[in-house]
């Protein structure tokens, strides 16, 4: 696995992805929810995918009907869930998580 540098932005993204494991997040949605610049999101999801912690699926939508290109949705892999939970536990203070927040 690629050596991931643990940053506040990465921790924020992990928090959003772990909040609802069944949700699929596209980059702009993830950017807004995590309060991370969308350009940074693209770099983070690329790193997470290379590390095998995140998978992506292209939305099955007709661009003409939807009036926009298909979105790429991101979800943590099983390994990604374990890694994100462990990393958040180890770095709670870095993003101001209280003991009452479950990871």
Automatic annotation (TrEMBL):
Organism superkingdom: Bacteria
InterPro entries referenced in this protein's UniProt entry, alphabetically: Tscrpt_reg_PadR_N (IPR005149), WH-like_DNA-bd_sf (IPR036388), WH_DNA-bd_sf (IPR036390)
Domain Transcription regulator PadR N-terminal: 34-84
SUPFAM superfamilies from the UniProt entry: Winged helix' DNA-binding domain
This protein's name: PadR family transcriptional regulator
Organism: Deinococcus aerophilus
Taxonomic lineage: Bacteria, Thermotogati, Deinococcota, Deinococci, Deinococcales
